[in-house]
């Protein structure tokens, strides 16, 4: 079983990929955070289907306290803005964003792209 102490397996792709890293803050309420985690353990089927449909190969979200960190892996020709615009129109995506907004520090009216902030890479080995 994968744990933070044992590490997480990385998916192997038979093509070059690129990675996007984003962060988002949750409200500082342990009950809300527990519910947020619970909802992500069993998302509506349309949510991962839509994520795959726009070309995302892998998406992982990590949690530390109230801070979320998301890693998204895509093919090299993936265009973030085009994909996010399309994703927002797919079945139940807007409803999911609204469903998750009660947990997040961002404005409930904000789009996913406005809530999740891209991070700068500052080191690579």
Search tags:
125 residues; alpha+beta; Alpha-Beta Plaits; 22% strand
Structure report:
With 125 residues, the protein is α+β, with helices and mostly antiparallel strands. It has one domain: Alpha-Beta Plaits (2-Layer Sandwich), CATH 3.30.70.100. Helices cover 33% and strands 22% of the residues. It contains five helices and four strands; from the N terminus they run E-H-H-E-E-H-H-H-E. It has helices at residues 30-41, 46-53, 80-87, 93-101, 112-115; strands at 17-25, 58-64, 67-75, 117-118. Strands 2-3-1-4 form a four-stranded antiparallel β-sheet. A hairpin with a 2-residue loop joins strand 2 and strand 3 (67-75). It is globular and about 40 Å long. The two termini are 27 Å apart. The relative contact order is 0.22. The model has no long low-confidence stretch (mean pLDDT 94).
Compact overview of the structure:
The chain has helices at residues 30-41, 46-53, 80-87, 93-101, 112-115; strands at residues 17-25, 58-64, 67-75, 117-118.
Count of DSSP strands: 4
**Radius of gyration from the CA trace?**
15 Å
Number of domains: 1
Unreliable segments of 5+ consecutive residues = none
Query: How many angstroms does the end-to-end distance come to?
Result: 27 Å
CATH architecture: 2-Layer Sandwich
Which CATH class is shown? Alpha Beta
Structural class designation? alpha+beta
What level of helicity do the residues show? 25-40%
Please describe the biggest sheet, giving its number of strands, its sense, and whether it closes into a barrel: 4 strands, antiparallel
Shape: globular
Instruction: Determine the number of helices (DSSP H or I, runs of at least 4 residues).
Output: 5
> Order of SSEs, N→C?
EHHEEHHHE
Order of neighbouring strands in the sheet with most strands: 2-3-1-4
Beta-sheet strand percentage?
15-25%
> What's the CATH topology name?
Alpha-Beta Plaits
Average of pLDDT: 94
């Amino acid at each position: 079983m994968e744990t933070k102490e044992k590490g997480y397996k990385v998916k192997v792709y038979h093509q070059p990929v690129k990675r996007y890293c984003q962060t988002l803050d949750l409200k500082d309420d342990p009950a809300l955070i527990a519910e947020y985690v619970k909802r992500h353990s069993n998302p509506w089927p349309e949510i991962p289907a839509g994520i795959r449909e726009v070309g995302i190969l892998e998406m992982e979200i990590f949690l530390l306290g109230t801070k979320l960190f998301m890693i998204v892996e895509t093919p090299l020709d993936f265009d973030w803005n085009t994909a996010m615009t399309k994703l927002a129109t797919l079945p139940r995506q807007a409803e999911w964003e609204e469903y998750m907004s009660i947990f997040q520090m961002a404005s409930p009216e904000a789009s996913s792209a406005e809530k999740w902030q891209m991070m700068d890479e500052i080191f690579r080995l």
